[in-house]
Amino acid sequence: MTGSYVAAIDQGTTSSRCIVFDRNGAVVAVDQREHRQIFPRPGWVEHDAAEIWAKVRAVVSGALAAAGLRADELSALGITNQRETTVLWDRATGKPVHNAIVWQDTRTAGLCHELGGTDGQDRFREATGLPLASYFSGPKVAWLLEHVPGLRRRAVNGEIAFGTVDSWLVWNLTGGADGGVHVTDVTNASRTLLMNLGTLQWDPSALEAMGIPEAVLPEIRSSAEVYGTATGPLAGVPVASALGDQQAAVFGQTCYGVGEAKNTYGTGSFLLLNTGDRPVPSKNGLLTTVGYRLGGDAPVYCLEGSIAVTGALVQWFRDQLGLIRSADEIEPLAASVADNGGAYVVPAFSGLYAPYWRSDARGVITGLTRYVTKAHLARAVLEATGWQTREVVDAMFQDSGVRITSLRADGGMTANGLLMQHQADVLGVPVIRPVVAETTALGAAYAAGLAVGVWRDLDELRGQWRRDVEWTPRMPEDEREREYGRWRRAVERSFGWAE
């Protein structure tokens, strides 16, 4: 072990970051850069994977420079990434064959409907834990193979590689076209609609149904092991973890016990509940997913409620409507009124995810009167995140019988105290933000550090968790349930807008 520092690459939907942590889990340095959001058609969302790789290289160099560290002073490098976003690239040249199709993209909704046949969304649920939806990677791969000329033939011949963003980064970090390692971890693989939750291997029936040749697939590995050694500026550093961003947040929040839950408030929001060593099937619109797997240990499973649009709604309020100039202006604007004035905003821009999985839904604003001002709308925008989270928590209780007693919160939106108080109010439980809010990157660092011996075990990591702020419920129960009923009526108005 060459040092006591661990770096984490956090490759997200809108930006890439590199964060260097010390042995106490404290942030030493951060560098961050945004990348373009590409919208070729309504409902289509793409990224340039080559641009993402360039930004990742830049933030790694920037973070090391800010920390005053050389690469050989890093013990390990971990990766956490936007999930489901799909990259296909040429193994010989290392160049993407098409823009990456982002998890938010809805172009495969029709294909998913066709694949469902008489079984509908549940066709692959027993094997994969997931509904058949445009959210996941498998249908995106199938779409690319069908629509990029000549790609299917090249894929069958083994000339093309598929990966979620973790695979793309590990491959490039470990040499790319010159010997790069083609792997993914169980958490990312469990988001493809292609991995069997029981075997933790690619599911032959799903591959056959979607027409995806095995030759394009990465090897499925655990979340914490040395996949390979970095080349280039990070030469010699072990690349030792990969976790999908939401599972990384579970790990960074030290939710290692059955019944512990976290919610990450970012572009979307993702609430995960640890269910231990058994996958819990959902009958209420949730996802059954792998939480993490450490080396050869048994996997840990989670129930997940995925909400497509939360922080992105604030961006829409700022950029598309122009009602604020910066995201942090929304809190004082919303706080200038006592309530939402009767208005509700349902941000079904790309359909609704958990617990509805309605690709036909589109965004609506309901309850408008002449009384409503932009301040009321600002409050309704924030409250939409709280209400969507409440729906997920209710579904989790129905599936698991576990009633959460508190919620650990992380992500950029936790800086908004008004939102966090509303969240505590509508859940009726305390909401807790840790001292280290960068729990996604921290989880990747923890997993990489465990793989190389920086930290001994989960108990040592749990001992490093510290609370920063706790919001406790203030809303009377009758008001909570009355407002929740109005929210549910608003959601119903969003159904059936898209064919």
Helix content: 25-40%
**What average pLDDT do the residues reach?**
93
Report the end-to-end length measured between terminal Cα atoms: 57 Å
Tell me the major beta sheet.
Answer: 7 strands, mixed
Structural class of the secondary structure composition?
Answer: alpha+beta
Shape: globular
State the helix count: 16
> Looking across the biggest beta sheet, what order are the strands in?
17-18-16-15-21-22-23
Please tell me how large the radius of gyration is: 22 Å
Low-confidence stretches: none
Number of strands: 23
Query: Percent of residues in beta strands?
Result: 15-25%
Oligomer: single chain
What can you tell me about this protein's structure?
There is one protein chain. The chain is α+β, with helices and mostly antiparallel strands and 499 residues long. The chain has 16 helices and 23 strands. A seven-stranded mixed beta sheet has the order 17-18-16-15-21-22-23. A hairpin with a 3-residue loop joins strand 15 and strand 16 (269-276). The longest helix has 27 residues, at 374-400. The radius of gyration is 22 Å and the shape is globular. The chain starts with a strand and ends in a 6-residue tail after the last helix. The model has no long low-confidence stretch (mean pLDDT 93).
